[in-house]
What we know:
By secondary structure, this protein is an all-alpha fold. The protein is built from 3 helices and no strands.
Amino acid sequence: MEELxxxxxxxxxxxAEIKDSLAKTSNFQDRMKAFQEKIKMTEDELASLxxxxxxxxxxxxxxxxxxxECREANKGLREKxxxxxxxxxxxxxxxxxxxKACKEDKxxxxxxxxxxxxxxxxxxxxxxxxxxxxxxxxxKAVMWDMVEAYYSTWKEINMSSTRKW
Length: 165
């Protein structure tokens, strides 16, 4: 009878530990879900960044096209200058004016810097999330080890108590 009472007390203690473990597991699952949502949001932000990057590349193409047009115009002006139709000083002034206008295309340069900063921040956040994922996976492994230990203990208690009856 005393062995039965000891068995019941041990069983109650083990059940309390199992309930505590289940609560920890539930908390862990909630944290995993929140983590997965963070990863999804980061992936969405990266997709948005790719769209901005594509837009920026289009701006670069337009800029390159304008640059090519300017080179063609400069080439034509040089030929005119060589033929004596236009003075070299006038050609140099037109060239300086064009490049000054290109340098003043602030949205182009500012968007490039903004995209670079955003991409760095997102990649750092993504790396932090991946590191957090590793920590959560390690914690999950520890919890599974605890569950296996509880199972072994429970099985051992049951086996030892059934043999004695």
